[in-house]
């Protein structure tokens, strides 16, 4: 079993609460309140800036060319794909690029992104990619699940573009690359003694991802 699947299996309740959150279900059937999605878009843009920094940190901490290439691909996936998606989507929802860049980070945004950066600063690449996994790989899983719903990609679903992006080939390939990188790092650095701490880090990151959905749903600042 690949390391990501082992981590998910270790925290099933937390994982299911994240990928099955009411915010996610609301995107899938198109019932999510529009103000909640707009608030999410703004915060996720700020979120992605910090995640790009995390992948840049991975590049700094790389000990091989393969690790450096993986980090570079992560930065590119965020800066060249996800952030462009957010700008396009936001414009259609009445938000300009200036609105996104001038926004203040919500507490839920700070909580998860700083956990990731701290994991990378104080730990090694295995810690960093474990903390990143619920976002990069989790969004791919969510996108695939929502695209498979009867109305997920329906023209009547206002969230179909988000679903199409995260279920699409480009993002799915990026997520698979993240899985592969996590496996390579685990093969090199994971020991049984280290496993409980890694599970705890993955659990924290997963819970903070669920909190991020909740922030969007409740419009919490």
TrEMBL record:
Record-linked InterPro entries: Haem_Oase-like_multi-hlx, Thiaminase-2/PQQC, Thiaminase_II, Thiamine_Salvage_TenA
EC number: 3.5.99.2
Pfam families cross-referenced by the UniProt entry: TENA_THI-4 (PF03070)
GO cellular component: cytosol
Swiss-Prot/TrEMBL keywords: Hydrolase, Thiamine biosynthesis
Annotated GO biological process: thiamine biosynthetic process
Reaction(s) catalysed (UniProt annotation): thiamine + H2O = 5-(2-hydroxyethyl)-4-methylthiazole + 4-amino-5-hydroxymethyl-2-methylpyrimidine + H(+); 4-amino-5-aminomethyl-2-methylpyrimidine + H2O = 4-amino-5-hydroxymethyl-2-methylpyrimidine + NH4(+)
GO molecular function: thiaminase activity
Gene3D superfamilies listed in its UniProt record: Heme oxygenase-like (1.20.910.10)
Metabolic or biological pathway: Cofactor biosynthesis; thiamine diphosphate biosynthesis
Domain Thiaminase-2/PQQC: start-end pairs: 15-217
Family of this protein: Belongs to the TenA family.
The protein's role, per its UniProt record: Catalyzes an amino-pyrimidine hydrolysis reaction at the C5' of the pyrimidine moiety of thiamine compounds, a reaction that is part of a thiamine salvage pathway.
Name this protein carries in UniProt: Aminopyrimidine aminohydrolase
Species: Amorphus orientalis
């Amino acid at each position: 079993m690949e390391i990501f699947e082992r981590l998910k299996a270790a925290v099933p309740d937390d994982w299911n609460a994240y990928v099955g959150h009411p915010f996610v279900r609301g995107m899938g059937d198109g019932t999510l309140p529009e103000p909640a999605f707009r608030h999410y878009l703004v915060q996720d843009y700020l979120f992605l800036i910090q995640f790009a920094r995390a992948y840049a940190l991975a590049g700094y901490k790389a000990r091989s060319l393969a690790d450096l290439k993986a980090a570079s691909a992560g930065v590119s996936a965020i800066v060249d794909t996800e952030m462009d998606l957010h700008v396009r989507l936001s414009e259609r929802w009445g938000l300009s690029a200036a609105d996104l860049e001038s926004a203040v980070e919500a507490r839920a945004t700070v909580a998860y992104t700083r956990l990731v950066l701290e994991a990378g600063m104080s730990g090694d690449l295995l810690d960093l990619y474990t903390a990143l996994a619920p976002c990069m790989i989790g969004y791919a899983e969510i996108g695939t699940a929502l695209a498979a719903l009867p109305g997920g990609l329906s023209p009547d679903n206002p969230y179909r573009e988000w679903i199409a992006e995260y279920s699409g080939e480009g993002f799915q390939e990026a997520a698979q690359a993240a899985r592969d990188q996590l496996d390579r790092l685990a093969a090199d650095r994971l020991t049984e003694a280290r496993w409980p701490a890694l599970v705890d880090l993955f659990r924290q990151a997963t819970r903070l991802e669920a909190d991020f959905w909740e922030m969007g749903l409740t419009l919490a600042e």
